[in-house]
Amino acid sequence: MSSFSQQLTAMGLRSLDFNQAENASLDVLLSQLETEFSSLQQQRPNSKGDDLLLGLMTKTHLSALEQYQSTESQSHAMNDLFVQQLGKEHAARFDNQHHGHFLLVTHLWMLVLGYQQIDLSYVADHAQSSASLLFPDDATGPSHSRAEQTRRRFMQAYYQGKASARDNARGTEQNTSSVSFINSLRGWFQRIFHR
To answer: Fewer CB in 10 Å around end: N or C, the chain?
Structure first.
C-alpha cells in the first residue's frame, strides 16, 4: 500500500504551482490527510488506493466548502472592518484561513479528479463555482481577475492529474508488453532448442 503523499506525487502534485505560503499550508494539510488515508486503508484493505483517495478528497472538499460557506459572512464583515480601519493595502495582508484551506483542498481534489478521468464538464462546473465562491466580486471568463486565475489553476490541476494517469497507464502498458515480449522470446528459444 502506498501512502497518501506517494499517491498524490504519482498524480503530479509536485508539478502544481503553489506559492511559498501555500506550500507551507500544503505540508500541514498533507500530514493531516496522511493519517486519515492510512486509517482508511486499514479499515478497507481490499479497496483500491485510488478509490480511497477519491473518496477522502471528495469528503475533504465538501467539508472545506461547508466550513468556508459557514464563515463567509463573518470573514467579509471582518475584511470590511480592516479596510475601513487600516486601508485596502494593509487589509490585504490578513488572510482568511478557511479561504486558503478551501483553495488548497480544491486543488488537490481537482488533481485526483483528473487522475480518475472524471468527466470534464463536471470538473469545469466545480472549478467555476469554486473560483466564483472564493472571489465573488470578480468575473471569470476572458479576464485576468483573481477568480479567473484561480479557475485556471484548478483546471491545470485537473489536467495534470489526467496527464499523469495517461503517463502511468503508458508505463504499465510498456512494462506489460516488455514482459510478454520476453515470455514469447523465451518460448521461442525453448521450442527451437528442445526439438
So the answer is: C
